[in-house]
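Would you mind giving me a polypeptide sequence along with per-residue structure tokens?
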Amino acid sequence: MIAFIRRSKIWFTISGVAFVLSIVAFIIFGFNFGIDFTGGSSLELKFEQTVDVQQVTAALNASQLKLGESVVTPADSGSFLVRVRYLEENERTQLESELGKSLGSFETLSFTTTGATLGQSMRERAVRAIVYASIAIVLYLAAVFRNTRRDSLTKYITVGSTIALATIVAETMVEDDLTRWIVFLGILAIFAIFLVLEIRKKSLSLKYGVCAVIALIHDIVITLGVLSVLGHFMGVEINSLIITALLTILGFSVHDTIVVFDRLRENRKFQTAHETLATVADKSLNQTLARSINTSLSTLIVLTILFFMGADSIKWFVFTLICGIFVGTYSSIFNATPLLVYWESRKN
């Protein structure tokens, strides 16, 4: 039997180093946000003759529209994705005319434009969405793993319903971003108060949820750290697809953690006098290890094939899933359960 808990300092050290390096990447490189979040215009152009990235870039720089910094990347079937500042319809027509004169005939396969204000709003909504999802996961796990004989479900339903209702109203019916942030901070305050009160009551079920979300934060931060480095060196953009991938990672990772926690809870019912919590946790992890690895590996095989053979438009979406699932599998096994054992052992 593998002694996971006895080596927990090693697992925590590995995670800690990766976490800190990711934070350093944020600070040094920042994020390369796409036009979904920064505002701007994106065109996909397919030329009838052979041109390269340097030629397209030179033509954009020579434009009379003063486009500023432009980004050109190869896309599917020999086309090019061009990202420039926000363009009005007449400016788009002028740009296409100028490119036609300097580079020859081409077809505009797609044109997308997003205002700077809308981009900022979408970026803020993405942050709130991830936080709301994390709060929901904590409350759900606390409700699922509660002691049914002593712990009432009513409080979780009440808090969860209140937060859900406030979130729906703020994000769908309120148009003012300031009001949304006020509601968001109010929800955080309510959740923090509930969390502190329950932890002071030594609620074990809430500890399951908190440990799972700490592992999720670990997964998201490290995945974003990788994207930050790739954004700096390879121009990978953070767009709405990437946010979708991050939310998917939250669901996949917590699913794996729930399986381990559920086995731990069942094994604790049959814990003998000479067994410690660490022993029971090791037994639970070993019993679910093959299942966790097989589930993740089968998913990673499909995603890896899709990364190399799929369309370029979803390439980095798939890569984000690969990175997140790999890190999430690690944290479910090596972080979430050892953290729960450490937290529980401190009271003894």
